[in-house]
Amino acid sequence: TLPYVEEFDNGIPECWIQENIAGNTSWTSDNSSLVYNTTNNDTTSSRIVLTPFEFADSVNATIKIKLNNTPSAEQSNGRLTLYYKTGNNSEWKYLQHYMANTNSEVIAVLPEVSKFYLISLVAESYSANKISIDQISIETYNYADGLIIASSTDGNGTISPNGVNTYAWGDNISYTLMPNEGYEIDSLYIDGKNIAFEGNTHE
Fold first, then answer.
1. What is the mean pLDDT of the chain?
2. Which residue of 41, 91, 92, 195 is surrounded by the most CB atoms within 10 Å?
3. Contact, 177 vs 159, CB < 8 A?
4. Could you give the CA distance from residue 10 to residue 65 in angstroms, rounded to a whole number?
5. How far apart are CA 95 and CA 108, in angstroms?
6. Phi and psi at residue 77, in whole multiples of 5°?
7. Strands 59-67 and 130-142: what pairing?
8. Residue 89, Cβ neighbours under 10 Å: how many?
9. pLDDT of 34-87, one tens digit each?
10. CA dihedral in degrees (86, 14, 99, 118; nearest 10)?
11. Which residues 6+ apart lie within 8 Å of 128 measured at CB?
12. 141 has which bridge partners?
């Protein structure tokens, strides 16, 4: 049912499916968190697929993920990538990725929502590190209410406006990205696509 919230108090839901892509490390639960923990320098990767969702017609949807990771340079050797697909036999489509040292709530709009919709999380590790997720939530919004834009960063800077915002169709919209000291803007993704831009503002 929607809205959907999973806080892992009872471990990983039994209906979620795991697939090890490289290596033998799997997702586990620990202290009400979903965890992918590697202890060696081997390259490993594992996919976990959430329960299928059924979205009504004429809705927008967002996914929020509360990441509880260690913001260190060592943790930057891994990442969490979101994918989606609209049928069992469809190919997974890239949505967004976050580095393993992200320690914040991140959010993304779910594209192409349909009556059968799958979301998966893929953890990738290139050295010993840990990805920890405290909560995953999915919310819907009526399409008629306007354009939904969800924005977030990996924690090494800010984006303004932040979070979920609703705009009237046809509005001029401007977003400003500000990296923290010692960082620079690496990429900007909109609906899973890498967008070229200059400076700190995208309209």
1. 86
2. 92
3. yes
4. 18
5. 8
6. -85, 10
7. antiparallel
8. 5
9. 999 887 777 899 999 999 999 988 888 999 999 987 766 555 568 899 999 999
10. 0
11. 38, 39, 40, 41, 74
12. 60
